[in-house]
From TrEMBL:
It catalyses: a very-long-chain (3R)-3-hydroxyacyl-CoA = a very-long-chain (2E)-enoyl-CoA + H2O. The keyword Phosphoprotein does not apply. It holds the Pfam family PTPLA. It is an enzyme of class 4 (lyase). It is a multi-pass membrane protein. Its main location: endoplasmic reticulum. This is Very-long-chain (3R)-3-hydroxyacyl-CoA dehydratase. It comes from Corynespora cassiicola Philippines. Keywords: Endoplasmic reticulum, Fatty acid biosynthesis, Fatty acid metabolism, Lipid biosynthesis, Lipid metabolism, Lyase, Membrane, Transmembrane, Transmembrane helix.
Amino acid sequence: MGAEKPTRPAQSQSQARVLYLTLYNLTFAALWLAVLYRVLGAAPGGKGKVFDATEGLARGVQTLTLIEVLHAAVGIVKSPVGTTALQVVTRVIQVWMVWWSFPESTRDSAAYGALVSAWALADSVRYLYLAMNLHGLAPGALVWLRYTMFYALYPVGIGAEWWLLYRAIEPSAGISPVIPPIFYFCLALYIPGSYTMYTYMIKQRRKTLGSKQKSK
C-alpha cells in the first residue's frame, strides 16, 4: 500500500507554517542587518556612539526572539527546547539585566561593540539561511557560512557577554547586595552553557555539511 497523500487541511497547515516561518526569518534577518549597519555607521565615532546607535534596537530585536522558545516547544520548528531556551534567555538577560540596567558599565566597553557585531553578523546569516532553506534555495556558500562562522563568533560573543556581565557586578552592588551573587552564579553557568552550545553547533555542522558532501 502506498503512502497516503496529505489531506487538504494538513497541506494548508504546512503551507501556512512555511509562509509564517519565511516571513519571520526574513524579518529578523533584516532587523539584524539593520543593527549591523548601525554598528558600521557609528564605529568611527567610538565605543559610546556604537552603544547609543544600536542598544535600543538590538535589545528590542533580541527580546522578540523569546517567541522562538515557543516555536520549539509547540513543534513549529524542530529545535531542542533546552538549547533554544539557553541561547535566547541568556541573551535576554544580557540585554535587560546588563545593557539596560547598567549602561555605565556597558557603554564604554569594547566588549559591547564586539558582542552586538557578533550577534548581528551571525543572526543575519542564520535567519537568511533559515528562510531560504525552507524552500530548498539556500546556496552552498550561505550554508557554509551558517555552519562555520560560529567557530569564531561564538567565542567572541560568549566572551563579550561574560565580560559585560562581570563589569556590571560592581555597580549592581549599589542597588542591592543580592544582585552580585546572582551575577556570579550566572557567570559560572557560562562554562557548561558555552560547552553545550558550542558542541551542539559542531554536531549540526557535521550533520549538515557532511550530508551535503555525501550527496555529491
